[in-house]
Amino acid sequence: MRAVTLDGFGGPEVLTVGRVERPEPLPTEVLVRVHAAGVNPVDWKTRAGQGMAGLQKLPLILGWDVSGVVEEVGFGVTTLAPGDEVYAMPWFPRPAGGYAEYVTAPSRQFARKPASLGHVEAAALPLAALTAWQALVDTAGVTAGQRVLVHAAAGGVGHLAVQFAKHLGAEVIATARASRHAWLRELGADETIDYTARRFEEATGPVDVVLDLVGGTDGTDVRSVSVTRPGGLVVAVPGGVSDALAGAASAAGVRASAFLVEPDAAALTTIAGLVAAGAVRVEVERALPLEQAAEAHRQGESNRTRGKLVLEVTPH
Question: Cα(131)–Cα(150) distance, rounded to whole angstroms?
Answer without folding.
Answer: 13
